[in-house]
Automatic annotation (TrEMBL):
<keyword id="KW-0237">DNA synthesis</keyword>
<dbReference type="Pfam" id="PF21999">
    <property type="entry name" value="IMS_HHH_1"/>
</dbReference>
<dbReference type="InterPro" id="IPR043128">
    <property type="entry name" value="Rev_trsase/Diguanyl_cyclase"/>
</dbReference>
<dbReference type="InterPro" id="IPR053848">
    <property type="entry name" value="IMS_HHH_1"/>
</dbReference>
<feature type="domain" description="UmuC">
    <location>
        <begin position="3"/>
        <end position="216"/>
    </location>
</feature>
<comment type="similarity">
    <text>Belongs to the DNA polymerase type-Y family.</text>
</comment>
<dbReference type="InterPro" id="IPR001126">
    <property type="entry name" value="UmuC"/>
</dbReference>
<dbReference type="InterPro" id="IPR017961">
    <property type="entry name" value="DNA_pol_Y-fam_little_finger"/>
</dbReference>
<dbReference type="GO" id="GO:0003887">
    <property type="term" value="F:DNA-directed DNA polymerase activity"/>
</dbReference>
<dbReference type="InterPro" id="IPR036775">
    <property type="entry name" value="DNA_pol_Y-fam_lit_finger_sf"/>
</dbReference>
<dbReference type="GO" id="GO:0006281">
    <property type="term" value="P:DNA repair"/>
</dbReference>
<dbReference type="GO" id="GO:0019985">
    <property type="term" value="P:translesion synthesis"/>
</dbReference>
<dbReference type="Pfam" id="PF11799">
    <property type="entry name" value="IMS_C"/>
</dbReference>
<dbReference type="Pfam" id="PF00817">
    <property type="entry name" value="IMS"/>
</dbReference>
<feature type="region of interest" description="Disordered">
    <location>
        <begin position="259"/>
        <end position="280"/>
    </location>
</feature>
<dbReference type="GO" id="GO:0003684">
    <property type="term" value="F:damaged DNA binding"/>
</dbReference>
<dbReference type="InterPro" id="IPR043502">
    <property type="entry name" value="DNA/RNA_pol_sf"/>
</dbReference>
DNA sequence: TGGGGTTAT
DNA sequence: ATAACCC
């Protein structure tokens, strides 16, 4: 396989600079509540970091310009434009967050390799960086495939730049793990291809196991218990010990990851599996406030669902309760089916589906919280999921990935 | 420390 | 429904 990982540079900041070009030359941060979630490179030069407190960022950089990024609509829309653009080259595009995509370009590479072999193999040239500056051997067809991959990655970035005005990085390798890890080696707006001989170096360059995508906070903590701190430790750990701590499935998967092995396919994301909207705040402690917050969240969500054209069959309310310790990660939720009579109304405009939904959501709320007792919430989230296509006679469903434009060349297989 | 997403159990 | 992961 040949996989490309595409990673847009400071995505929210780029979108804001397109929305308001006067911000182009300023140090710019995107703010959500009391945090600068991302910033452009002007701001980074002046010491602003991702996820920095606004207070610290202003201290470091008093000239910092901030825009509010709590409404994700512009980012979400731009994000899908990128995914759809990549989808014009190849059907196998998988989203990761709003600013990253994996593309499985194996078939495109094979096609070009055949053309190349018919017309004499000379003149193949790598695009962008080669990891470790490793020499290319054009006798090695694996090298040639990856070099072709680097050219395709360049075409992706060129298309994203000229058609959407966005810059980003790309990594090319033979699996998703490695493509993702290698894409960040040269950072803004550059790309890197990994050749097999440098795989060990790339994995060894990771100083902590949590840098391995797929090994998160919890797993890293448990591995530390076993004395595992870096990738080498994880490779060396007897698999029996690992399986005992994490279970066979996770153990086998992450130990393979530690060698740079990743068999997971690029799974086309297609349209979203869920739509959610959330808001965090210092305090919400009465039923009336909860109802107000929910009423604020719903209109935006319903509009998105309407545009999508599918019907959500499940609705969920999530909350976060205040806690001085462990402020992060104590969320609870309750969900229920959307009643069939409401389902019909989702497609229609101007019908009032809001108040019955608020009623349902307040019932879910009372399943979690005894409203007779004091409570202190710091977050409310509403999520619609279990999306089903309409019975196919209804108009208006755009059918997300329906368009198939012409890729650079095409032939029936 | 935001405002989103996904999959596995 | 939660827990883990990703951004």
């Amino acid at each position: 396989r040949v996989i490309v990982h595409v990673d847009l540079d400071c995505f929210y900041a780029q979108v804001e600079m397109i929305r308001n070009p006067e911000l182009r030359d300023e140090p710019l941060g995107v703010q959500q509540k009391s945090i600068v979630v991302t910033c452009n490179y002007e701001a980074r030069k002046l010491g602003v970091k991702k996820l920095m407190a606004v207070k610290d960022a202003k201290e470091k950089c008093p000239q910092l310009v901030l825009v509010n990024g709590e409404d994700l609509t512009p980012y979400r829309e731009t994000s899908y434009k990128v995914t759809e653009l990549l989808g014009e080259f190849c059907p196998l595009v998988e989203r990761l967050g709003f600013d990253e995509n994996f593309v499985d370009i194996t078939e495109i590479v094979e096609k070009r390799l055949n053309q190349l072999q018919q017309s004499g193999c000379s003149g193949v040239c790598v695009s962008g960086h080669v990891y470790n500056n490793q020499p290319i051997n054009l006798q090695d067809t694996t090298h040639v495939r990856l070099v072709i991959g680097s050219q395709i990655a360049e075409e992706f970035r060129e298309a994203i730049s000229t058609r959407l005005g966005l810059t980003g990085c790309a990594g090319v390798a033979w699996n998703k793990l490695l493509a993702k890890l290698v894409s960040g080696t040269f950072k803004p707006n550059q790309q890197t291809v990994l050749l097999p001989e440098s795989c060990r170096d790339l994995m060894r360059s990771l100083d902590h196991i949590q840098k391995v995508p797929g090994i998160g906070y919890k797993t890293a903590k448990r591995l530390e218990t076993l004395g595992v701190r870096n990738v080498g430790d994880l490779q060396a750990l007897p698999s029996a010990s690992l399986e005992k701590e994490l279970g066979v499935s996770i153990a086998q998967r992450i130990q393979k990851l530690s060698y740079g092995e990743d068999g997971s396919p690029v799974t086309p994301s297609g349209p979203p599996q869920s739509f959610s909207d959330e808001d965090s705040f210092k305090k919400c402690s009465s039923e009336a406030e909860v109802k107000e917050k929910i009423e604020e969240l719903l209109p935006n969500l319903l509009e998105r669902i309407h545009k999508d054209g599918r019907q959500p069959h499940t609705v969920r309310l999530s909350i976060r309760q205040f806690s001085s310790t462990d402020r992060w990660f104590n969320r609870e939720s309750r969900q229920c089916p959307v009643p069939p009579h409401l389902l019909q109304k989702f497609g229609k405009e101007s019908s009032n589906v809001i108040s019955p939904l608020v009623d349902i959501l307040m019932k879910l709320f009372r399943k979690m919280i005894d409203v007779e007792l004091p409570f202190h919430l710091t977050l409310l989230s509403v999520c619609f999921s279990n999306l089903k296509a309409l019975p196919s006679s209804k108009k208006g469903s755009i059918g997300f990935y329906l368009k198939q434009m012409s890729p650079p060349s095409s032939s029936g297989k």
